[in-house]
């Protein structure tokens, strides 16, 4: 296993830049290879264009966003809005994991208002142990993972959980140094910026501004300017050590 490989698995092309782009940038600077894998090509990210038209646009935007992070990007071509928690999708993710052999995985949380996101988080937790089992049936010659990788769940949309509260995280990464690059990478997904606008105190804010606000909120918890929050997966069998602290040193706060 290459010890410096990061796999960021999101539902849509812009998700990983939005939720963990700063941390990916910092890991890239430490020499990590970064692969952003999205489950869907984002057919639902429009109210005007056809599925074919929006996918073409989003593929171009994704290349640009990934380039700014220093990452590669790939898509599993599941239809947007249709990410299901099922065996077929799990097999696709196991195949991806075996072929890439990541040490660290970032993905969505298992609860999010957007079901594609929540299912992606759940699918990763199904796929990780099976990626280590050589007899789990997957069509690839790539070997099973030797060790269970580290998994970090990002924040949900709006940082908000089912109870309306800001969700608990156990890790905050200080992304102040790279926040503008992160936001610029996220802004590469131009077709989505206005599409995902929200109302705030009677004013419309676009998703770049919204993402900056989340980073300020997470930063405050660690008394730094901008942060990204994560829940390190600590279920039985997952590694206990916080590998991000080792990789990114004093930029990481374990809460
Ligand atoms: Zn998404």
UniProtKB/TrEMBL annotation:
The organism's place on the tree of life at top rank: Bacteria
InterPro entries: GlcNAc_PI_deacetylase-related, LmbE-like_dom_sf
Pfam family, one: PIG-L
GO molecular function, one term: hydrolase activity, acting on carbon-nitrogen (but not peptide) bonds, in linear amides
PANTHER family recorded: N-ACETYL-ALPHA-D-GLUCOSAMINYL L-MALATE DEACETYLASE 1, N-ACETYLGLUCOSAMINYL-PHOSPHATIDYLINOSITOL DE-N-ACETYLASE-RELATED
Name of this protein: LmbE family protein
Organismal lineage: Bacteria, Candidatus Chisholmiibacteriota
